[in-house]
Write a structure and sequence with these properties.
This protein is an alpha/beta fold. It contains 5 helices and 5 strands; from the N terminus they run βααβαβαββα. Strands 2-1-3-4-5 form a 5-stranded parallel beta sheet, with helices on both faces.
């Protein structure tokens, strides 16, 4: 069975109460539930993991390396400076889709640059929680296409 790792970076545990204008009112627990429901309909397994610490995200990625088929990642602020996370994504050697709840390209200048972008097949930004399920669908389709 196809296995997808979903990584949530710093401050995403505060969704639902943090800057609702940019990030919405849906909690991380609700996003994870919606991801799991969509994974069930796609026939894939999914593990969601959140940490406020870059090293914990790297550890999880390294721990699962070799047993996952792809990664959906919202690295939060690590998007802009998380070079050890970038290296771990590269080393995992699986397809990656980057997700952002807000449209980072329409926000502050420093948010517009992603150090992870060149490790990802693509980026979904500005669709709120729906970006996660869209990323999952796209990633599973790409993995399925590569295996045929």
């Amino acid at each position: 069975m196809t296995s997808i790792l979903v990584l949530h970076g710093p401050n995403l545990n505060a969704l639902g109460r943090r800057d609702r204008h940019h990030y919405g009112v849906v909690t991380l627990e609700e996003i994870n539930r919606r991801i799991a429901e969509r994974a069930d309909t796609l026939g894939v397994s999914v593990e969601c993991f959140q940490s406020n610490h870059e090293g914990a995200l790297v550890d999880k990625l390294q721990e699962r390396s070799g047993s996952i088929d792809g990664v959906v990642i919202n690295a939060g602020a690590l998007t802009h400076y998380g070079l050890s996370l970038k290296d771990a994504l590269t080393d995992a050697a699986v397809p990656v889709v980057e997700v952002h709840l807000s449209n980072i390209h329409a926000r502050e200048e420093w948010r517009r640059r992603s150090v992870l972008a060149d490790t990802a097949l693509g980026q979904i930004a500005g669709l709120g929680w729906r970006g996660y399920t869209a990323a999952l669908e796209a990633l599973v389709g790409i993995i399925n296409d590569q295996s045929t």
